[in-house]
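User: Quick sanity check before I run a bigger batch. Here is a single chain. Can you write out its predicted 3D structure?
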Amino acid sequence: MSRAIQRGATVCLGEGGIVVGQLAYSRSGVRENSSFVYSQQWLQSIDRFSLSPDLLLTETHQYHKAASENDSVFHFAIADTAPDGWGCRVIACDHAKRRTVQIAQGMVQPFEPLTQWDYLVGVDDFSRIGALRLRDETGNYLRTLESGDRATPPLLELGFMLGASHAVERGRETEADLRYLRGRGTSLGGLRPKCSVIDDDGQLAIGKFPSVKDQRSVTKGEVLALRLALVAGIEAALARIVYADNSPVAVVRRFDRTPQGGRIPYLSAASLLQARRDDECAYSEIAERIIATCADPKHDLAELWRRIVFNLLITNMDDHLHNHGFLHVGHGQWRLAPAFDLNPFPDKDQELKTWLTEETGPVSSITEVVRVAAQFWLNREHALEILRQVYDAIESWRVVALTSEVGMEPHDLDDFAPAFEHEQMRLAATLLRQG
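Assistant: Done. Predicted structure follows.
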């Protein structure tokens, strides 16, 4: 039986490391839970705000446990900073490799199984999403390299990261591969191989690699979708294709940092809604939270509706709640974060993962999306104007795909055509003609 474990860290905010509270974690057998208590310094600050809807501004300890095996043991805002998918895979492989080395060296000290705490603190501090940071009792931020150097590499090292990531995918990773990925490839969610990277101008970005399993150029598809989103009037993460060892890598600029390197508090839509991973949620529920918490709800509601139209018409079937986010703008108010993780799926039907409303079910008809526009504070005239802008942008997809920033080739156009040329686009054209 695993021994009881207790861990703790000081939770800080921003580049200046303002102390906002204390986080504690405990495990006994299979039972795990965490607690958080705000610091008096934060509760008395004029800049204070609730870090998460499930963390009220009170002096008491607030406890949390996982709602299911798929959910986090930590409060939502803290869970947003933990790795998911690829990052967890890198941490688990690194743990297994270290255990193998210890056994080979005849060490008898038991290597404990990984806990949710291990994954949370396995993220590099420099590139941890949002503004929350964890500091140990010695004053060091978790996680930093043993040498004290910054883990995030420059673009010049993408080739090394790509090789190490592909080794992990194939199950052939070496200790050197994992040592290189440690921290660099663990700060981000999603299942596909990726890493944090410093762009040529010194700004923090994500490098998204092709997978060894890809049947089409997924990285080019994502960059195409993000650039089309900008043409469609959507605020979206900046992205371009660069090459590492002749492989197209999507470099996507992080939007939770200021140009000066400051950190911006971030919440996923799942956290804002307090939604469990297995919950069926709807865009109308996101709209309700926008009205309640955003500084400019009219703008964000129109922006959200524009994204629904765009996701449907580019066949982005990966629009779950963790692929929508919010940035703090001050005094407990939020705004929609730029769109990210937009991926056309040419081999799937046009039906989004997040429902349209709780009554209508999944988003599968552009006609239905237009019909409910009033729930997003849009009259029909304004909704059709937005639809026209999105439709015209997507109609230009072949032109945008061939730009140097995307770099698609003729065979790529054939691969992705079904994602952009389909019945819902034809229905959109009909709606626009009818007015």
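The two ends are 67 Å apart (CA to CA).

User: Great, the batch can go ahead then.
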